[in-house]
Amino acid sequence: MEPKVNVGILWDKKISFILNSDYLCNGHIIKGEYAVCIENGKIKWNSNLHEQLLFEPQNTEASFTLKDVVIGINFHWERKENQQFRGALKLIPNNGLIYVINILPIEDYLTSVISSEMSATASLELLKAHAVISRSWLLAQIYKTKKTSGNGAQCATFTKTENEVIYWYDREDHTLFDVCADDHCQRYQGMVRASANLNIVKQAITETRGQILMSGGEICDARYSKCCGGVVEEYQNAWEDVRYSYLVKLRDSGNSQDFPDLTQEDEAQKWILSRPPAFCNTQDKRILAQVLNNYDQETTDFYRWKIEYNQAELSALVNKRSGIDFGTITDLIPIERGTSGRLVKLKIIGTKKTMTIGKELEIRRILSTSHLYSSAFIVEKKESSFILHGAGWGHGVGLCQIGAAVMGEKGYNFRQILQHYYVGAAIEKRY
Questions:
Q1: 428 versus 200: which is more confidently predicted?
Q2: Whole-prediction pTM value?
Q3: CA distances, 106 to each of 63, 86, 134, 273 (Å)
């Protein structure tokens, strides 16, 4: 039987929405435009206070519209837009905010996810590969949540000492729903995205219905990112210290083991300062358009990139983003790199404080007003400035979306694409 998924869309003190079709709530069939707000820890709607609200669709085509949904949270292209969704609408008050949750069948959810992550020009094989990994990742997260909540286990997401702070960001902070709708989990932007390339996306989902990646008797935690930069990263270097046999280092090319040891600083420097051939080393706009939506195409030079800060800018930025007063930053020292050259630990040396930070997303977060493209960078120091030379876009674990798009263009089928990025994993049909 096809499961359902609870997706957290947004959370705010006031929520405006439109029921475009007939919905059932508290025994009444309703339709139209409404607004709710938080009051005394409850939801105020139609002059009454509610512990929670559930609006259930009365037919499979019923939809609702949410106003001012934030997309690209904390990224340079962050913006608000109205979005339309199918399925049920649930509102829950929590910590002074109203959480908006969309409840719908997994395959309907995937229709939007694949459309949000990919464009209408994507090849069928790329879309089929993405359908399998998105379904696998989602079911793995739902299973993990049930497992940890059932035995009372807590998922650690940081370690902290006087001289070191190591964070890794995953989805364990979502306790009211299964996944969120933004890049923190998987982009889910409702029917607007799905309508743009609906036919080919539906074909990809239908032809892979219920198919997931399995390894060692468990559903694969099938991570993916925009661009690995030529070498895929291992899971434990970005998230918790767990090794998965299917999320291992590999070269994003036909020869998956042909690359240097990028955990070594000298090799990482040479690698990042060069442009070695790789599936994801492409500037073909037609191929990039398969993976990058309009706002993503505002990002350029992702395979190799450069950013420069003067000393005052960097010191102020790190202070603001970390909440730690390092004083004037005098150096950035790589301490540990992963298999793709991504920094796992970085030492920040300042006139007031010296501290090591990690893992990769925390490094990216602190060294940018949004996020650095990746933590695979080397530091070039000049008299009063720091130049970061970098590689790739995202954490680099699992499937490389741009690399997979190139593979699809080269004639690889979706099974071959999955076998390349998820070593030893098998495809199984779950429902």
A1: 428
A2: 0.88
A3: 16, 12, 10, 42
